[in-house]
Amino acid sequence: MSAPDNLGDIFSDALAEAVATVAGVCLERVPIKDDEGLGELTGAMSLCGKKGGILFVSAKESAVRFLCSCMTGVAEDEITRSDVEDALCEFVNMTAGSAKLRISDPDYYFNLSTPFVIKGKDITITTKNKAKVITKVLGNGELKLWLRFVG
């Protein structure tokens, strides 16, 4: 599968697969509402290459805490903030790795950085004119994850 036209689908499918695999929760693409902002936590990773970019996965802390509980079997109230951040980094890492394997276009071969977490609400991503921003929202009821790829 090549990358240019379906990059958002590749990354959102990879995120849904990662969440289903490690947390047992099925997510599907949901419409993006203009009044929805990103969550309090954003996991990110740089994808370095000829046509690389940055992958962002954002969610409310409560959503990541729930997924972390599903992953580990530990009660939500026993999960630490560090556990939540580690879980979010793992979702970003798995998403980028899976997407990398799905993209056959050699121009989109990239090396992955270490994932990291950005804390705070209402994070704005501003890019130069030529950067492409892809946004997808995955959800299951009240649980929502925002995926953005900037490249």
Describe the structure.
Helix content is 34%, strand content 28%. The chain has a single domain, classed as CheC-like (Chemotaxis protein chec). The radius of gyration is 15 Å and the shape is globular. With 151 residues, the protein is α+β, with helices and mostly antiparallel strands.
Which residues form runs of ≥5 with pLDDT under 50?
Answer: none
Residue share in helix: 25-40%
Mean pLDDT: 89
CATH superfamily assignment? CheC-like
Distance between the termini: 18 Å
Q: What fraction of residues sit in β-strands?
A: 25-35%
* Alpha-carbon Rg, integer: 15 Å
Q: How does the helix and strand content classify structurally? A: alpha+beta
What is the 3D shape? globular
The appropriate CATH architecture is 3-Layer(aba) Sandwich
Query: Would you tell me which CATH topology applies?
Result: Chemotaxis protein chec
Tally of DSSP β-strands: 7
Give the H and E element order. HEEEHHEEEE
Count of distinct structural domains: 1
Query: For this structure, what is the CATH class?
Result: Alpha Beta
Total helices: the number is 3
The description of the largest β-sheet is:
7 strands, antiparallel
Could you outline the blueprint of secondary structure elements for this entry?
Layout: H1 7-23, E1 28-30, E2 41-49, E3 53-59, H2 61-72, H3 81-102, E4 110-112, E5 116-119, E6 133-140, E7 143-150
Antiparallel strand pairs: 1-6, 2-3, 2-4, 2-5, 3-7, 6-7
Helix pairs in contact: 1-3, 2-3
